[in-house]
Every structure is written in structure tokens, then in C-alpha cells.
Amino acid sequence: xxxxVTVQYAVTAFADWIEPTNAELDAIEQEMPxxxxxxxxLDAQIITLDRIPTELDNRRLRRARRxxxxxxxxxxxxxxxAALPGGAA
Length: 89
Prior knowledge:
Radius of gyration: 21 Å
Strand content: under 5%
Number of helices: 3
Helix content: 55-70%
């Protein structure tokens, strides 16, 4: 009895369409401030998972939420390239 083996991975592993296009990379680059703001918000939320949030934690969460919202608004308004106020959380 012969074993039937698929060769689809070998056929499609090097196809041109697997790599992102320049337009897709540009879109990701344009969304990067909003993505980074969301990551900062998640970091602030993760910090408070295993303990009762302190006043500093609450401020960090509020600041991160404001930055994420501002980044999303800037992205929606088409000004994603503009610098957002604030620094690291």
C-alpha cells in the first residue's frame, strides 16, 4: 500500500502572493501609531490583572486609553502620520 502525501506546501511555499505587497506594507505603516497605542493599552491592562490597581495604575490606564482613542481618531481623520502627545506609558 502506498502512502499519499500532499505537496501543496512545497508548491505554495514560494508563491509570489504570500509576501505582502507594497500597498499592504504602506497601510500597516500608516496604522502603526494606532497599533502601538493599542499595545501600550494592553500592557497597562496586563499589569493590573493580578492585583488591585493603585492610583498610579489607574492613571496609566486612563492615559493609555486616551492615547489609543486619539490614535484611532487620527487614523480615521487621515492624520495618522502626525505626532501624538505623550510618551511611554
